[in-house]
Structure formats: C-alpha cells, structure tokens
C-alpha cells in the first residue's frame, strides 16, 4: 500500500504540555491517531514519526524521497518545528530528491515573533498550512492525496 509520511521535528513530542495557549492541549499520539484515520480514508498507509534531531529528519526525508521515486509513497507532511527557521539541510533534502512536501505549522507563525516568519522550507514545499491548529495535519494529508490524484 502506498504511504504518506508525517514527520515532526523538535519539541513536538511535548504537544499537550508545551504552551497549550499556542499549541492546544492535544497530544502528539492523539494527532497520530487522527492522521491514521484520515490517511486510511484517503486510501494510504500512514508513517508517523517525531525526532528532536535534525540529521534524523534529513535521513527520513531522503528515505521518503526514495520511496516516492519507487512509487511507494506520495510524500511528506512536515512540521519541522524550530528547524523550519534554521535548516538549510532539511530544505536541501526536500529539493535534492524532489520530495512532495506539505509544510505544516500548528500556530500562525506570522502572528508570532519575527524570526518565525521566515522558513527555509517554504520555497521548496509543495504547499504550506499555518495556523489551523492540529487540523493542519489532516489538511496536509488530504492535500497530498489530492495532489497525487490530480
Ligand atoms: C511550529 C512553529 C515553530 O515556530 C515552532 O518552533 C514549533 C512549532 C508550529 O507547529 O506552530 O516548534 O512549527
């Protein structure tokens, strides 16, 4: 079965505990369950992961890129957390293997500190979803599925 990767960067393991006024009270494992339901509904298998380590995220994006090339995956929904604002390496992995990637942010990064307004990923992403809360993950999965069928 073709898959969709949902990759989460640093501190997203703290969802539900970390700054609930900004990120809400839902945990990452609850988000994973919701993503699994939506992916299943769209006819795809879910591969949901979280890492606090930039290089591990690079490895996973490369893995996804190889699977996309082999027709085993349709791409990545990526909430890279703070690496969004710092990581040329993540952007290079996405563009280097042409990995269809939907960039997701739970919060509206443009309404927060100025440094969150810049993303190294946006220029290489297939689409960007910000400020919709954890619904952004569901929207990202549906966007990848729509894109794959178009
Ligand atoms: C985030 C926004 C980032 O600026 C922040 O560093 C995160 C989470 C979001 O989902 O809103 O860790 O990506």
Secondary-structure element order, N to C: EHHEHEHEEH
Q: What CATH architecture do you see? A: 3-Layer(aba) Sandwich
The profile of the biggest β sheet is:
5 strands, parallel
The helicity comes to 25-40%
Distance between the termini: 19 Å
Total beta strand runs: 5
Report the CATH C-level class.
Alpha Beta
What CATH calls the topology is Rossmann fold
Number of helices: 5
User: Assembly type of the shown chains?
Assistant: single chain
Taken as a percent bin, the fraction of beta residues is 15-25%
What is the topological layout?
Layout: E1 3-8, H1 20-23, H2 28-42, E2 45-50, H3 54-69, E3 73-79, H4 88-96, E4 101-105, E5 127-130, H5 135-149
Parallel strand pairs: 1-2, 1-3, 3-4, 4-5
The chain binds 1,3,4-trihydroxy-5-OXO-cyclohexanecarboxylic acid (DQA).
Summarize this structure briefly.
The chain is built from 5 helices and 5 strands; from the N terminus they run βααβαβαββα. With about 150 residues, it is an alpha/beta fold.
Question: What characteristics describe this protein?
Answer:
150 residues; Rossmann fold; 5 helices; binds 1,3,4-trihydroxy-5-OXO-cyclohexanecarboxylic acid
How does this model look, in words?
It contains five helices and five strands. The chain has 150 residues and is an alpha/beta fold. It has a five-stranded parallel beta sheet with strand order 2-1-3-4-5, with helices on both faces. Strand 3 (73-79), helix 4 and strand 4 form a beta-alpha-beta unit. 1,3,4-trihydroxy-5-OXO-cyclohexanecarboxylic acid (DQA) binds next to loops.
């Amino acid at each position: 079965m073709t898959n969709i990767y949902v990759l989460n960067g640093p501190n997203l393991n703290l969802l539900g505990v970390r700054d609930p006024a900004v990120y809400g009270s839902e945990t990452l494992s609850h988000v994973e369950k919701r993503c699994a339901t939506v992916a299943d509904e769209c006819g795809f298998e879910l591969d949901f992961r979280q890492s606090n380590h930039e290089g591990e995220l690079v490895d996973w994006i490369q893995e996804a890129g190889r699977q996309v090339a082999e027709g085993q995956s349709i791409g990545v929904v990526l909430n890279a957390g703070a690496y969004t604002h710092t990581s040329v390496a993540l952007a290079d992995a996405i563009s280097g293997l042409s990995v269809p990637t939907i960039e997701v942010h739970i919060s509206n990064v443009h309404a927060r500190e100025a440094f969150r307004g810049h993303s190294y990923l946006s220029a290489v992403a297939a689409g960007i979803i910000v400020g919709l809360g954890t619904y952004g993950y569901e929207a990202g999965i549906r966007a990848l599925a729509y894109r794959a069928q178009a």
